[in-house]
Amino acid sequence: MKKLTLLFLLLPLAMQAQNHQDILSDSAKVVVERYLQMLNIDGLPQDSLLVTETAITFYGEKDTIWMRRWYATPNMFRVEVWNHGELETGLVSNGKDRFRKYVPADKGWESIKLEEFHDRLQGYDFRGPLYDWRNKGAMLSWNGTTTLKGEPLLVVKVSCPAMYERYYMFEPESGLLTLIFETDNREDGYAPRREGHIDWKSIHEYQPLSTGILPSLESFMRGGVLTIMSSTTHFEKLDTEIFEHD
């Protein structure tokens, strides 16, 4: 596992990627699709419920926020974030006609439109920001390589409508995504940073599943605060009622 301190050494290096020849001998699309093939999200069992439990810790603090996510195909989601025993954030959708969010002030749920649901889900979707990149209108471009302790990282720039440009860095041999930098640049010009905007995010470990892998240990920097996320994922018997009730 890479030490967290190495991330700070990477900060001045990440945006200095040189336009070396693509060592995978093709394009940015090849790098991203290789990674998504290993995750194999589309290969998840359709008769099972994927459950991810995450401990979220702010560096230097003892308190832990707990997040639980449920997923079943096609596109059934439930997210709950608990802080000090209180439900703080909630999202649920049956993938068809039910899109709801939790309102802490009212301690209840309310219906929202599909667009708002997808916007809020961005920071909680276990599939990650590169999943289904074509339908999201993302543009991939090869941005050369950078190095970490003498080892190369493949750099892919991702531009997506109404989102800030990001740089995704992959390990050449394993093909795994290891580091993400989110910039202040957008194709459509300046706009205030959305809630959840990160400076960088690192994936340290992955958990193998019966069908693929998913990130299990991550850290990110947002607003000068280092946050660590440790997740475990397992399958349960499919229960669609989870997505039909608050």
Task: Give a short overview.
12% of the residues lie in helices and 43% in strands.
SSE blueprint:
Elements: H1 5-14, H2 28-39, E1 48-58, E2 64-72, E3 76-83, E4 86-93, E5 99-103, E6 108-111, H3 114-121, E7 139-148, E8 151-159, E9 166-170, E10 177-182, E11 200-208, E12 213-222, E13 225-237
Antiparallel strand pairs: 1-2, 1-13, 2-3, 3-4, 4-5, 5-6, 7-8, 8-9, 9-10, 10-11, 11-12, 12-13
CATH architecture: Clam
* Helix/strand order: HHEEEEEEHEEEEEEE
How many H/I helical runs? 3
Number of strands: 13
CATH 4th-level superfamily: Lipoprotein localisation LolA/LolB/LppX
CATH class categorisation: Mainly Beta
- Under CATH, the topology can be stated as outer membrane lipoprotein receptor (LolB), chain A
> How widely separated are the two ends?
38 Å
Order of strands in the sheet with the most strands? 6-5-4-3-2-1-13-12-11-10-9-8-7
Radius of gyration: 18 Å
Number of domains: 1
Overall helicity: 10-25%
Beta-strand share of residues: 35-45%
Main structural class: mainly beta
Q: What is the quaternary state of this protein?
A: single chain
- Report the principal-axis shape: globular
Overall pLDDT:
86
Largest sheet: 13 strands, antiparallel
**pLDDT under 50 segments (min length 5)?**
1-25
